[in-house]
Amino acid sequence: MKVALVTGGSRGIGRAICVKLAELGYFVLINYQSNKAAAEETLAEVKSKGSDGELMMFDVADEAQVQSVLGTWLENHKENPVEILVNNAGIKNDTLLMWMSTKQWKDVLNTSMDGFFNVTKLVVQGMLVKKYGRIVNVVSLSGLKGMPGQANYSAAKAGVIGATKALAQEVGRRNITVNAVAPGFIRTDMTKDIDEKSFKQLIPVARFGNPEEVAEAVCFLASEKASYITGVVLNVNGGLYT
Ligand code: NAP
Predict the structure, then answer these.
(1) 12 CA distance to ligand 1 centroid (A)?
(2) Structural domains of the chain ordered from first start
(3) pLDDT for 86-126, tens place per residue?
(4) Which residues are catalytic?
């Protein structure tokens, strides 16, 4: 049994990644925060691809919860360590910095950055023992370019990009690669309030992307074929200037 863990696997980009990993034969641990019905839909799609998986509810930003739910699973499945980790869970809460509350700042940073730390710290241990692993972090164009109204989100994603590059250098000798994928505008719940018609003229391919197009990039970096690629950020943004 080859195991993959996708945080925020219940909806959007995370769901598309779970389904693609199932197509590739992975048993998929589908993390979500609260939306059990959506997570169950992802699991049904995973099963429809002839694979299997398990729902795993925890808040990636809550170290104690991650330790108790994920830590216990890993402890009980030492013979099946997680081979692929996709740190995808993320939120945005946009406003200009001058109006941003401390909570808006912290919630967004904690989900992306603490989430990356809490989950990766546990999962990388098994990868180090097995001397194999693939870690892919879903970041954003915002983390590369900075976007007005998203100081919190841009900082959070830029932080994860820095951590990606550092960790890649720490674990490369153990055959573990660590990369990031930076989507532009992708059609999910997160972008449902953004008017595609008015934004698409900024995008060379003249449309928003689909979650499946991000999943392809993630699954390439998560594959054995990407063995000599580590510490990079792969843009999946239809050619938007970064
Ligand atoms: P989405 O449709 O809003 O889905 C977010 C997912 O993350 C859901 O599965 C949600 O679980 C989960 N989640 C949120 N906070 C969590 C937490 N604290 N612990 C565990 N799970 C949590 O978002 P999306 O558009 O697919 O985005 C996925 C990733 O891509 C995010 O990191 C986002 O920043 C990044 N991204 C998206 C775009 C875009 O245009 N959509 C562009 C660039 C980057 P529940 O279902 O339980 O709420």
Answers:
(1) 7
(2) 3-236 (3.40.50.720)
(3) 999 999 999 999 999 999 999 999 999 999 999 999 999 99
(4) 153
Amino acid at 69: V
- Is pTM beyond 0.85? Reply is yes
Q: With a 6 A CB cut-off, is 237 part of the ligand 1 pocket?
A: no
Is the CB of 114 inside a 6 Å radius of any atom of ligand 1? no
* Average pLDDT rounded to a whole number, residues 13-28: 98
CA distance 49 to 57: 22
pLDDT confidence tier of residue 241, bands split at 50, 70 and 90: confident
Query: Encoding tokens for residue 18?
Result: 């779970």
**12 CB near ligand 1 (under 6 Å):** yes
pLDDT tens digits, one per residue of 182-209: 999 999 999 999 999 999 999 999 999 9
Atom in ligand 1 nearest the alpha carbon of residue 60: 19
**For the CA of 90, the nearest atom of ligand 1:** 32
For residue 5, the SS3 value is: strand
Residue 111 Cβ contacting ligand 1 at under 6 Å? yes
DSSP 127-166: HHHHT-EEEEEE--HHHHH--TT-HHHHHHHHHHHHHHHH
